Amino acid sequence: MGTDTSPGPEVEGALEALEAFPFPFELILVGDQQLVSQELARHGASPREGRLTLVHAPERIAPGEPPAAAVRKKPNSSIVVGVKLQREGRAEAFVSAGSTGAVMAASLFFLRPLPGVDRPAIGAVLPTAAGPTLLLDAGANVDCKPHHLLQFALLGRIYAQDLLGLEQPRVGLLNIGEEPEKGNELAVEAHKLLAASQLRFVGNVEAREIIRGACDVLVCDGFAGNLILKFYESVAEFVIGLLKRELQAQHAESLKLDEIFRVLDYAEYGGAPLLGVNGVTIIMHGASPARAIRNAIGVAAEAIRSGMVSHMARELARENGITV
Question: What is the second-level CATH architecture of the domain 118-269?
């Protein structure tokens, strides 16, 4: 019930996901039973034993509601019910295009952070000339300390290994210059921690180098990360709009630009994972179309298949000397 036109994109994306991916998985649709059932019927579908089930959640958290208070006051909302299904072991991942703050609050409250994680971070996959780059934090933590950025880098490395298929991902630190002494106190101290770690740290990365593929994982505080993410998305929309207008002006049916459109379209990247909680949570735009829902489900299923959360727990325990 999270998208701007729910539950249409959710139901359509769920049905597409059941047919799109080669590995088996089950889906639980969480929301207003009558509305979801009507949408399923519109597609000629219905809950199917073993693949698609429906859990009733009559309440909905609006985007403008205070997240923590809404999670407490609306226990029957689709966000709270969906996250609780994971906590109770009835589900292994949660995908939502609802209120980002509420999804984060519910995930932190019910799933809890992994041992060794002070601040779970939102990851966002950015297209670059050298392949996808994972940016984190993309908005969960506005004020950070240097050790938080080191934690983000550890979480990002594991995500890049398990879901992007990179054995030794390159980790970069967003900064205003390449030199280690550049930037504010946070950047300077974080550089020291990252350089002393076992990560494949490639140093500071200026904003202009991101799109060239300077690193595979880019860490920063959530304030800078959210600015980068939203500017990146707006530029992609601008470029796609220019290309489409040029096609129309040239009266051309195609200039073989489908791949460019696909690479620049955020819907292809399957949402933003909340990394560092004891579970799989994928956060999406409220404007997400069915294609984005489908791909987010695929990302969630792959995170489960790869054992990403267990991998993160082991690496964090090793890093912090914790027994798990």
Answer: 3-Layer(aba) Sandwich (3.40)
Q: Is pLDDT larger for residue 321 or for residue 184?
A: 184
Quick check: 324 pLDDT over 60? no
CA distance 16 to 250: 34
Question: At the topology level of CATH, where does 1-114+276-306 sit?
Answer: Isopropylmalate Dehydrogenase (3.40.718)
Mean pLDDT taken over the chain: 91
pLDDT band at 302 (very low <50, low <70, confident <90, very high): very high
State the DSSP string of 159-197: HHHHHS--SS-EEEEE-SSSSTT-S-HHHHHHHHHHHHS
Peptide bond preceding 7 in cis form (omega within 30 of 0): yes
DSSP string across 67-128? HHHHHHH-TTBHHHHHHHHHHTTS-S-EEE-S-HHHHHHHIIIII-BPTT-SS-EE-EEE--
Predicted local confidence at residue 202, as pLDDT: 98
> CA-CA distance, 239 to 251, in Å (whole number)?
18
Tell me, what amino acid is at 140?
A
For position 260, what pLDDT does the model report? 63
Residue (of 109, 10, 118) closest to 57 by Cα position = 10
Question: In residues, how long is the chain?
Answer: 324
Residue listed under structure tokens 């930037």: 183
